[in-house]
Amino acid sequence: MAFPFTLEVSSDRLKAWICKEEDVKINVTADEVRKWMNAQGVISGIMENELERLCRNDSRSKRVLVAEGVKPVKGQDGKIIFHVSPHLEKKEGNIVDYRDTMKIFSAETGDRIATIVDPEAGTSGMDVCGNEIVPEPGKAVRLKIGPHAIRHGKEIFAVTDGEVSFNWNVIQVNPFYVVDGDLDLSIGNLYFVGNVTIKGNVRPGYKIRVGGDLKVFGMIEGSDIHAGGSIYVKGGIHGEPDCQIKAGAMLKALYINEANVHAFGDIEVGHYILHSHVTSYQSIRCKNGHLIGGITQAGKFLEIRDAGNIHYTRTQIHIGQTKAIELHKSELDKQTKQIKDNISKLTVIANRLEEMKGETGFLGVKERALLMKHQQTRDLLEQQLLNIREELLRLEYRVDQLDEEIIVHGVCYPNLHIQIGKYAKPLNQACRSVRFIERGKEIAVIPL
Protein backbone atom coordinates (compact mmCIF):
# COMPACT_ATOMS: atom_id res chain seq x y z
CA MET A 1 0.00 0.00 0.00
CA ALA A 2 1.30 3.45 -0.92
CA PHE A 3 1.17 6.12 1.78
CA PRO A 4 0.91 9.85 0.92
CA PHE A 5 3.62 10.86 3.34
CA THR A 6 7.20 10.12 4.33
CA LEU A 7 8.92 9.27 7.61
CA GLU A 8 11.77 11.38 8.95
CA VAL A 9 14.00 10.26 11.88
CA SER A 10 16.36 12.61 13.74
CA SER A 11 20.11 11.97 13.64
CA ASP A 12 20.13 10.84 17.31
CA ARG A 13 17.10 8.62 16.58
CA LEU A 14 15.21 10.11 19.50
CA LYS A 15 12.41 11.59 17.38
CA ALA A 16 10.43 10.63 14.28
CA TRP A 17 8.07 12.78 12.19
CA ILE A 18 5.57 12.10 9.43
CA CYS A 19 5.92 14.66 6.64
CA LYS A 20 3.05 15.34 4.28
CA GLU A 21 1.72 17.99 1.95
CA GLU A 22 -0.68 20.46 3.53
CA ASP A 23 -3.74 19.56 1.42
CA VAL A 24 -3.22 15.78 1.38
CA LYS A 25 -6.07 13.76 2.88
CA ILE A 26 -5.18 10.67 4.91
CA ASN A 27 -7.34 7.65 4.13
CA VAL A 28 -5.58 4.98 6.22
CA THR A 29 -6.06 3.80 9.79
CA ALA A 30 -3.74 4.45 12.70
CA ASP A 31 -2.98 0.74 12.91
CA GLU A 32 -1.90 0.70 9.25
CA VAL A 33 0.35 3.73 9.81
CA ARG A 34 1.89 2.06 12.87
CA LYS A 35 2.68 -1.08 10.89
CA TRP A 36 4.15 1.06 8.12
CA MET A 37 6.38 2.83 10.68
CA ASN A 38 7.41 -0.52 12.18
CA ALA A 39 8.41 -1.73 8.74
CA GLN A 40 10.75 1.27 8.47
CA GLY A 41 12.37 0.56 11.84
CA VAL A 42 10.43 2.89 14.15
CA ILE A 43 9.02 0.60 16.85
CA SER A 44 9.38 2.44 20.15
CA GLY A 45 7.92 5.62 21.66
CA ILE A 46 5.09 5.79 19.12
CA MET A 47 2.57 8.50 20.04
CA GLU A 48 -0.83 6.87 19.54
CA ASN A 49 -2.83 10.06 20.01
CA GLU A 50 -0.90 11.80 17.25
CA LEU A 51 -1.45 8.88 14.89
CA GLU A 52 -5.21 9.05 15.55
CA ARG A 53 -5.28 12.82 14.93
CA LEU A 54 -3.27 12.35 11.74
CA CYS A 55 -5.63 9.71 10.39
CA ARG A 56 -8.68 11.86 11.24
CA ASN A 57 -7.04 14.66 9.25
CA ASP A 58 -7.17 16.85 12.38
CA SER A 59 -3.54 17.85 12.06
CA ARG A 60 -2.79 20.65 9.58
CA SER A 61 0.94 20.61 10.16
CA LYS A 62 3.17 19.41 7.36
CA ARG A 63 5.49 17.79 9.91
CA VAL A 64 3.89 15.77 12.73
CA LEU A 65 5.87 14.30 15.62
CA VAL A 66 4.70 10.67 15.88
CA ALA A 67 7.42 8.97 17.97
CA GLU A 68 9.77 10.09 20.70
CA GLY A 69 12.46 8.06 22.44
CA VAL A 70 13.61 8.23 26.05
CA LYS A 71 16.86 10.04 26.80
CA PRO A 72 19.31 8.32 29.14
CA VAL A 73 19.79 9.83 32.61
CA LYS A 74 23.41 10.41 33.65
CA GLY A 75 24.41 8.65 36.83
CA GLN A 76 24.82 10.69 40.00
CA ASP A 77 28.44 11.41 40.87
CA GLY A 78 29.89 9.91 44.00
CA LYS A 79 30.04 12.17 47.02
CA ILE A 80 31.24 12.52 50.56
CA ILE A 81 28.75 12.87 53.40
CA PHE A 82 30.25 14.57 56.45
CA HIS A 83 29.02 13.65 59.91
CA VAL A 84 30.67 16.49 61.81
CA SER A 85 28.91 19.75 62.66
CA PRO A 86 30.50 23.22 62.69
CA HIS A 87 30.50 25.42 65.77
CA LEU A 88 29.56 28.82 64.34
CA GLU A 89 30.86 32.04 65.85
CA LYS A 90 28.18 34.61 66.68
CA LYS A 91 28.17 37.89 64.84
CA GLU A 92 28.92 40.84 67.09
CA GLY A 93 27.69 44.21 65.87
CA ASN A 94 27.46 45.09 62.20
CA ILE A 95 31.16 45.44 61.43
CA VAL A 96 32.56 42.02 60.55
CA ASP A 97 30.64 38.82 59.89
CA TYR A 98 32.74 35.69 60.26
CA ARG A 99 29.94 33.18 59.89
CA ASP A 100 31.05 32.13 56.43
CA THR A 101 34.69 31.53 57.36
CA MET A 102 35.22 30.95 61.06
CA LYS A 103 33.87 27.41 61.38
CA ILE A 104 35.39 24.63 63.45
CA PHE A 105 34.50 21.12 62.27
CA SER A 106 35.67 19.15 65.30
CA ALA A 107 35.90 15.42 65.90
CA GLU A 108 36.98 13.22 68.79
CA THR A 109 39.01 10.03 68.59
CA GLY A 110 36.93 7.24 67.08
CA ASP A 111 34.26 9.54 65.63
CA ARG A 112 32.91 8.68 62.20
CA ILE A 113 33.67 11.85 60.28
CA ALA A 114 32.58 11.00 56.73
CA THR A 115 30.98 8.39 54.49
CA ILE A 116 31.92 7.81 50.85
CA VAL A 117 28.93 7.32 48.54
CA ASP A 118 29.62 5.41 45.32
CA PRO A 119 28.58 6.88 41.95
CA GLU A 120 25.42 5.64 40.28
CA ALA A 121 25.30 3.88 36.93
CA GLY A 122 22.47 6.03 35.60
CA THR A 123 19.28 5.07 33.75
CA SER A 124 19.29 3.71 30.22
CA GLY A 125 17.29 5.36 27.48
CA MET A 126 15.78 3.98 24.29
CA ASP A 127 15.60 5.45 20.79
CA VAL A 128 12.61 5.19 18.47
CA CYS A 129 14.19 2.16 16.80
CA GLY A 130 14.13 0.23 20.05
CA ASN A 131 17.87 0.44 20.70
CA GLU A 132 19.08 0.91 24.26
CA ILE A 133 21.02 4.13 24.92
CA VAL A 134 23.66 3.49 27.54
CA PRO A 135 23.86 6.32 30.12
CA GLU A 136 27.03 8.07 31.19
CA PRO A 137 27.99 6.75 34.63
CA GLY A 138 28.68 9.10 37.53
CA LYS A 139 32.22 9.93 38.54
CA ALA A 140 33.77 8.45 41.65
CA VAL A 141 35.01 10.73 44.42
CA ARG A 142 38.73 11.47 44.33
CA LEU A 143 39.87 11.22 47.91
CA LYS A 144 43.06 10.68 49.85
CA ILE A 145 43.26 10.02 53.56
CA GLY A 146 45.59 12.43 55.35
CA PRO A 147 47.10 12.41 58.84
CA HIS A 148 45.03 11.41 61.88
CA ALA A 149 42.26 9.81 59.80
CA ILE A 150 41.65 6.21 58.78
CA ARG A 151 39.38 4.57 56.23
CA HIS A 152 37.42 1.39 56.92
CA GLY A 153 35.31 0.34 53.97
CA LYS A 154 33.23 3.38 53.00
CA GLU A 155 33.61 5.06 56.39
CA ILE A 156 36.32 7.47 57.52
CA PHE A 157 37.16 7.81 61.22
CA ALA A 158 39.24 10.21 63.30
CA VAL A 159 42.18 8.69 65.17
CA THR A 160 42.80 11.79 67.29
CA ASP A 161 40.93 14.80 68.63
CA GLY A 162 41.08 17.74 66.28
CA GLU A 163 39.60 19.72 63.41
CA VAL A 164 38.41 17.96 60.28
CA SER A 165 39.91 19.48 57.15
CA PHE A 166 39.04 18.72 53.52
CA ASN A 167 41.32 20.48 51.03
CA TRP A 168 42.73 19.39 47.66
CA ASN A 169 40.78 16.09 47.93
CA VAL A 170 42.60 15.18 51.13
CA ILE A 171 40.60 14.58 54.31
CA GLN A 172 42.50 14.79 57.57
CA VAL A 173 42.15 15.68 61.23
CA ASN A 174 44.29 18.58 62.42
CA PRO A 175 44.95 18.59 66.15
CA PHE A 176 44.25 22.04 67.56
CA TYR A 177 45.33 24.01 70.59
CA VAL A 178 43.16 26.51 72.45
CA VAL A 179 44.39 29.41 74.59
CA ASP A 180 41.47 30.34 76.85
CA GLY A 181 42.66 33.91 77.45
CA ASP A 182 45.49 36.21 76.38
CA LEU A 183 48.76 34.88 75.03
CA ASP A 184 51.11 36.07 77.77
CA LEU A 185 53.97 34.85 79.96
CA SER A 186 51.88 31.96 81.25
CA ILE A 187 51.94 30.50 77.73
CA GLY A 188 55.07 32.01 76.18
CA ASN A 189 56.03 31.66 72.52
CA LEU A 190 53.74 29.27 70.73
CA TYR A 191 54.82 26.60 68.24
CA PHE A 192 52.15 24.17 67.09
CA VAL A 193 51.72 21.88 64.09
CA GLY A 194 47.94 22.20 63.84
CA ASN A 195 45.33 24.90 64.30
CA VAL A 196 45.36 27.38 67.18
CA THR A 197 42.55 29.43 68.72
CA ILE A 198 43.38 32.30 71.09
CA LYS A 199 40.30 33.57 72.91
CA GLY A 200 41.98 36.75 74.11
CA ASN A 201 44.70 39.10 72.83
CA VAL A 202 48.22 38.42 71.61
CA ARG A 203 50.46 40.61 73.76
CA PRO A 204 53.55 42.38 72.29
CA GLY A 205 56.82 40.57 71.78
CA TYR A 206 55.71 36.96 71.26
CA LYS A 207 56.42 34.50 68.45
CA ILE A 208 53.72 32.25 67.06
CA ARG A 209 54.37 29.50 64.51
CA VAL A 210 51.24 27.61 63.47
CA GLY A 211 51.04 24.84 60.89
CA GLY A 212 47.31 25.34 60.29
CA ASP A 213 44.89 28.22 60.88
CA LEU A 214 45.20 30.85 63.62
CA LYS A 215 42.08 32.45 65.14
CA VAL A 216 42.44 35.38 67.54
CA PHE A 217 39.27 36.64 69.21
CA GLY A 218 41.01 39.76 70.52
CA MET A 219 43.76 41.82 68.86
CA ILE A 220 47.37 41.23 67.87
CA GLU A 221 49.95 43.66 69.24
CA GLY A 222 53.54 43.74 68.00
CA SER A 223 54.08 40.00 67.66
CA ASP A 224 55.83 37.91 65.01
CA ILE A 225 53.34 35.42 63.60
CA HIS A 226 53.58 32.82 60.84
CA ALA A 227 50.62 30.54 60.01
CA GLY A 228 50.59 27.83 57.37
CA GLY A 229 46.86 28.36 56.90
CA SER A 230 44.58 31.37 57.34
CA ILE A 231 44.67 34.04 60.05
CA TYR A 232 41.41 35.42 61.44
CA VAL A 233 41.60 38.35 63.87
CA LYS A 234 38.30 39.48 65.35
CA GLY A 235 39.99 42.66 66.59
CA GLY A 236 42.79 44.44 64.77
CA ILE A 237 46.51 44.12 64.12
CA HIS A 238 48.90 46.67 65.60
CA GLY A 239 52.44 45.96 64.49
CA GLU A 240 56.01 46.96 65.25
CA PRO A 241 58.95 47.46 62.85
CA ASP A 242 60.63 44.09 63.48
CA CYS A 243 57.45 42.01 63.51
CA GLN A 244 55.73 40.30 60.61
CA ILE A 245 52.29 38.70 60.25
CA LYS A 246 52.41 36.01 57.57
CA ALA A 247 49.50 33.80 56.45
CA GLY A 248 49.80 30.82 54.11
CA ALA A 249 46.20 31.35 52.97
CA MET A 250 43.81 34.27 53.61
CA LEU A 251 43.86 36.91 56.35
CA LYS A 252 40.91 38.76 57.93
CA ALA A 253 41.14 41.57 60.48
CA LEU A 254 39.14 44.54 61.74
CA TYR A 255 42.03 46.92 61.03
CA ILE A 256 45.78 46.96 60.29
CA ASN A 257 47.93 49.67 61.89
CA GLU A 258 51.69 50.12 61.38
CA ALA A 259 52.11 46.44 60.62
CA ASN A 260 53.99 44.27 58.14
CA VAL A 261 51.41 41.81 56.80
CA HIS A 262 51.80 39.15 54.09
CA ALA A 263 49.17 36.66 52.89
CA PHE A 264 49.29 34.13 50.07
CA GLY A 265 45.49 34.36 49.81
CA ASP A 266 43.05 37.27 49.99
CA ILE A 267 43.23 39.97 52.66
CA GLU A 268 39.96 41.42 53.99
CA VAL A 269 39.96 44.39 56.38
CA GLY A 270 36.89 45.96 58.00
CA HIS A 271 37.89 49.48 59.09
CA TYR A 272 41.26 50.76 57.85
CA ILE A 273 44.86 50.10 56.83
CA LEU A 274 47.21 52.73 58.28
CA HIS A 275 50.92 53.25 57.59
CA SER A 276 51.49 49.55 56.95
CA HIS A 277 53.25 47.31 54.48
CA VAL A 278 50.52 44.92 53.31
CA THR A 279 51.05 42.29 50.61
CA SER A 280 48.56 39.79 49.21
CA TYR A 281 49.41 37.47 46.35
CA GLN A 282 45.69 37.50 45.43
CA SER A 283 43.43 40.46 46.32
CA ILE A 284 42.95 43.06 49.07
CA ARG A 285 39.52 44.32 50.10
CA CYS A 286 38.81 47.16 52.51
CA LYS A 287 35.59 48.21 50.82
CA ASN A 288 34.22 50.20 53.75
CA GLY A 289 37.52 51.50 55.10
CA HIS A 290 40.45 53.83 54.56
CA LEU A 291 43.93 53.19 53.18
CA ILE A 292 46.39 55.78 54.45
CA GLY A 293 50.16 55.74 54.08
CA GLY A 294 52.51 52.80 53.66
CA ILE A 295 52.78 50.38 50.74
CA THR A 296 49.94 48.07 49.76
CA GLN A 297 50.59 45.34 47.18
CA ALA A 298 48.17 42.86 45.63
CA GLY A 299 48.63 40.26 42.93
CA LYS A 300 45.52 41.20 41.01
CA PHE A 301 42.86 43.32 42.68
CA LEU A 302 42.41 45.98 45.36
CA GLU A 303 39.13 47.54 46.55
CA ILE A 304 38.89 50.32 49.16
CA ARG A 305 36.69 53.23 50.10
CA ASP A 306 39.23 56.07 50.46
CA ALA A 307 42.92 56.26 49.50
CA GLY A 308 45.14 58.79 51.27
CA ASN A 309 43.87 61.63 53.50
CA ILE A 310 43.38 65.40 53.68
CA HIS A 311 46.97 65.80 54.88
CA TYR A 312 48.20 64.34 51.57
CA THR A 313 50.08 61.50 53.27
CA ARG A 314 52.12 59.57 50.71
CA THR A 315 50.24 56.36 49.96
CA GLN A 316 51.50 53.68 47.54
CA ILE A 317 49.47 50.97 45.82
CA HIS A 318 51.12 48.28 43.67
CA ILE A 319 49.08 45.81 41.63
CA GLY A 320 50.27 43.09 39.28
CA GLN A 321 52.48 40.09 38.81
CA THR A 322 55.81 41.90 38.76
CA LYS A 323 56.24 41.60 42.54
CA ALA A 324 53.51 39.60 44.21
CA ILE A 325 53.40 36.64 41.84
CA GLU A 326 57.19 36.37 41.61
CA LEU A 327 57.36 36.27 45.41
CA HIS A 328 54.65 33.63 45.44
CA LYS A 329 56.53 31.49 42.92
CA SER A 330 59.70 31.80 44.98
CA GLU A 331 57.86 30.64 48.09
CA LEU A 332 56.36 27.68 46.21
CA ASP A 333 59.83 26.68 45.02
CA LYS A 334 61.02 26.64 48.65
CA GLN A 335 58.04 24.50 49.65
CA THR A 336 58.79 22.09 46.80
CA LYS A 337 62.37 21.61 48.01
CA GLN A 338 61.21 21.05 51.60
CA ILE A 339 58.60 18.47 50.56
CA LYS A 340 61.11 16.57 48.41
CA ASP A 341 63.54 16.47 51.35
CA ASN A 342 60.80 15.09 53.60
CA ILE A 343 59.87 12.44 51.01
CA SER A 344 63.52 11.36 50.81
CA LYS A 345 63.67 10.97 54.61
CA LEU A 346 60.45 8.93 54.64
CA THR A 347 61.80 6.71 51.85
CA VAL A 348 64.93 5.93 53.89
CA ILE A 349 62.87 4.93 56.93
CA ALA A 350 60.47 2.83 54.85
CA ASN A 351 63.38 1.01 53.20
CA ARG A 352 64.82 0.17 56.60
CA LEU A 353 61.51 -1.26 57.75
CA GLU A 354 61.27 -3.35 54.57
CA GLU A 355 64.79 -4.63 55.21
CA MET A 356 63.75 -5.65 58.73
CA LYS A 357 60.79 -7.53 57.28
CA GLY A 358 63.04 -9.30 54.81
CA GLU A 359 65.46 -10.38 57.55
CA THR A 360 62.89 -11.55 60.12
CA GLY A 361 60.02 -12.51 57.85
CA PHE A 362 57.54 -10.28 59.69
CA LEU A 363 57.08 -6.88 61.33
CA GLY A 364 55.75 -6.21 64.80
CA VAL A 365 52.54 -4.29 65.46
CA LYS A 366 54.39 -1.03 66.12
CA GLU A 367 56.56 -1.42 63.04
CA ARG A 368 53.55 -2.18 60.81
CA ALA A 369 51.72 0.84 62.19
CA LEU A 370 54.80 3.01 61.62
CA LEU A 371 55.17 1.74 58.04
CA MET A 372 51.49 2.47 57.34
CA LYS A 373 51.77 5.94 58.86
CA HIS A 374 54.86 6.70 56.76
CA GLN A 375 53.08 5.57 53.60
CA GLN A 376 50.06 7.77 54.38
CA THR A 377 52.35 10.73 55.08
CA ARG A 378 54.24 10.11 51.84
CA ASP A 379 50.96 9.99 49.89
CA LEU A 380 49.95 13.30 51.44
CA LEU A 381 53.30 14.89 50.58
CA GLU A 382 53.05 13.61 47.01
CA GLN A 383 49.60 15.21 46.74
CA GLN A 384 50.94 18.49 48.14
CA LEU A 385 53.76 18.37 45.59
CA LEU A 386 51.23 17.84 42.78
CA ASN A 387 49.14 20.76 44.06
CA ILE A 388 52.19 23.02 44.08
CA ARG A 389 53.05 22.05 40.50
CA GLU A 390 49.49 22.84 39.42
CA GLU A 391 49.65 26.20 41.21
CA LEU A 392 52.95 27.03 39.47
CA LEU A 393 51.32 26.27 36.12
CA ARG A 394 48.42 28.54 37.02
CA LEU A 395 50.86 31.29 37.94
CA GLU A 396 52.68 30.93 34.61
CA TYR A 397 49.33 31.24 32.83
CA ARG A 398 48.28 34.17 35.03
CA VAL A 399 51.35 36.21 34.09
CA ASP A 400 49.82 36.78 30.64
CA GLN A 401 46.18 36.66 31.65
CA LEU A 402 46.03 39.10 34.55
CA ASP A 403 43.39 41.79 34.37
CA GLU A 404 44.50 43.99 37.27
CA GLU A 405 42.42 46.82 38.65
CA ILE A 406 42.08 49.14 41.63
CA ILE A 407 38.64 50.30 42.73
CA VAL A 408 38.19 53.33 45.02
CA HIS A 409 34.57 53.96 46.00
CA GLY A 410 35.24 57.19 47.89
CA VAL A 411 38.00 59.79 47.55
CA CYS A 412 41.53 59.48 46.13
CA TYR A 413 43.62 62.23 47.73
CA PRO A 414 46.73 63.84 46.19
CA ASN A 415 50.11 62.17 46.81
CA LEU A 416 48.62 58.79 45.99
CA HIS A 417 51.04 56.72 43.89
CA ILE A 418 49.55 53.96 41.72
CA GLN A 419 51.57 51.19 40.05
CA ILE A 420 49.97 48.51 37.88
CA GLY A 421 52.49 46.09 36.46
CA LYS A 422 55.40 48.19 35.18
CA TYR A 423 53.39 51.40 34.74
CA ALA A 424 53.14 54.08 37.43
CA LYS A 425 50.88 57.06 37.94
CA PRO A 426 51.23 59.71 40.68
CA LEU A 427 47.99 61.46 41.60
CA ASN A 428 48.33 65.25 41.98
CA GLN A 429 44.68 66.11 42.41
CA ALA A 430 41.74 64.53 44.19
CA CYS A 431 39.19 62.37 42.40
CA ARG A 432 36.20 60.37 43.51
CA SER A 433 34.67 56.95 42.75
CA VAL A 434 37.12 55.69 40.15
CA ARG A 435 38.70 52.55 38.79
CA PHE A 436 42.39 52.35 37.81
CA ILE A 437 43.31 49.89 35.05
CA GLU A 438 46.19 49.41 32.62
CA ARG A 439 45.25 50.53 29.11
CA GLY A 440 47.53 51.20 26.17
CA LYS A 441 50.82 51.18 28.12
CA GLU A 442 49.51 53.62 30.72
CA ILE A 443 47.20 53.71 33.71
CA ALA A 444 43.68 54.86 32.89
CA VAL A 445 41.31 56.44 35.43
CA ILE A 446 37.69 55.45 34.78
CA PRO A 447 34.66 56.74 36.74
CA LEU A 448 32.63 54.04 38.50
TrEMBL record:
Where would one find coiled-coil regions in this protein? 371-405
Q: Where is the Flagellar Assembly Protein A N-terminal region domain?
A: 6-167
A Pfam family found in this protein is: FapA_N
Q: Does the keyword Coiled coil apply?
A: yes
State the UniProt keywords alphabetically. Answer: Coiled coil
Per its UniProt record, what InterPro entries does this chain match?
A: FapA (IPR005646), FapA_b_solenoid (IPR046865), FapA_N (IPR046866)
In Swiss-Prot or TrEMBL terms, this protein is called: Flagellar Assembly Protein A N-terminal region domain-containing protein
Protein's organism: Pradoshia eiseniae
